[in-house]
């Protein structure tokens, strides 16, 4: 099988649930339109995210991108609250403040979003087989839960586990590849944080997750993988940059993926 684009996941509000789409538009920054467009911040301007607030895992969100709405399911509540992201911002902020127990606001950046890696604004890439393999390291976890924990943007199928590890090279070198007619540069393997160690619905920690992950990642690293980007092995998925020539282009489910020979 040819490698192909199997899933596109956008995260309209940083740290909340994803929305799966059939296609996505590339912005001039290299980010995908609507991905991490909004971020929740506290009064000090710090991100209210899964790294700092495990409680956020229990908050469910659904998005209607065309309608610009978010539907929130508050834990221990029997009803959903729906807000327009542009016209009902204050009500949304008030509901989120009540949930967290301190004042928060919603920041917006429609040009590049709020990525963790501000040097590599492109979508993060992982393969379906990798998610399945990593899930097998943890009894009780399945591929869907691992997908929710890793929070990658685009998923490649038709390839073996860790296929995406060829999308980066030694530090400082970029790997060119295409998804459909969208040109990418693979940068490095993504450094993981505390978020994957927790249940994506409840926020409960999986015992020794990082230790198990690191041991297994090192043991299963393909022998053809460039090892220099691995100062540690708590890394998975690939950070990317997109050239300006990709701006305005559309990623579409089913697009073939080709590595451009250097």
Automatic annotation (TrEMBL):
Instruction: State the protein's name.
Output: Molybdenum cofactor biosynthesis protein
InterPro entries of this UniProt entry? MoCF_Sase_C, MOCOS_middle
- Source species taxonomy: Bacteria, Bacillati, Cyanobacteriota, Cyanophyceae, Nostocales
Residues in coiled coil? none
Q: Where is the MOSC domain?
A: 89-260
